[in-house]
Amino acid sequence: MSTEEEIIAGCKKGKASFQEKLYALYSRRMMAVCLRYTGSRFEAEDIFHEAFVKVFKHIDTYNGGSFEGWVRRIFVNTAINHYHKNRRLLEQLDYSTVEETTPTDEDIISLISGQELMNIVNQLPEGYKLVFNLYVVEGYNHREIGEMLNIAEGTSKSQLAKAKNQLKKLLHNYSISENAD
């Protein structure tokens, strides 16, 4: 079994066997990243393959620190670039009516699986889902999200607030339908 450092060194030399090991090591986690940013498995696979090509092409630029973080950043950036290329016109938002709210019914979240929660998040409109994932899952702040998506910081905050409100409604509806069974 090769160490991560050995795999990276082998990839920097262009050795296919080490590229396969790197792929095996990160493919599941990075596909999960891709699925969070897309509406379909087909789109996620496009991003996934494009991002892995970038990892192998630019592995010489990796110079220490968390390798998984470096790889994840390439995948997130590739997903964002994909979003920009395929972006539909986002609805105009009235920022003056936006309020930050958080779901209060934590019990619903504790009763559902991670996959069920991701299925609910995937029901969000594309812009809401993108900001939600970048802020909540990836940990970026609104300024960083604004820069990545070429939107105002206020738009990021608004999209997140609306995503949370919509998620609250979706979780409530999910709870009602689950209890009806």
Automatic annotation (TrEMBL):
InterPro entries (alphabetical): RNA_pol_sigma-70-like, RNA_pol_sigma-70_dom, RNA_pol_sigma70_r2, RNA_pol_sigma70_r4_t2, RNA_pol_sigma_r2, RNA_pol_sigma_r3/r4-like, WH-like_DNA-bd_sf
Highest taxon of the lineage: Bacteria
Domain RNA polymerase sigma factor 70 region 4 type: 115-167
Stretches of the chain forming a coiled coil according to its record: none
RNA polymerase sigma-70 region domain span: 22-88
Keywords tagged on the record: Sigma factor, Transcription, Transcription regulation
Pfam families xrefs: Sigma70_r2 (PF04542), Sigma70_r4_2 (PF08281)
Spans through the membrane: none
Membership in a protein family: Belongs to the sigma-70 factor family. ECF subfamily.
Protein name per the record: RNA polymerase sigma factor
Organism: Pontibacter populi
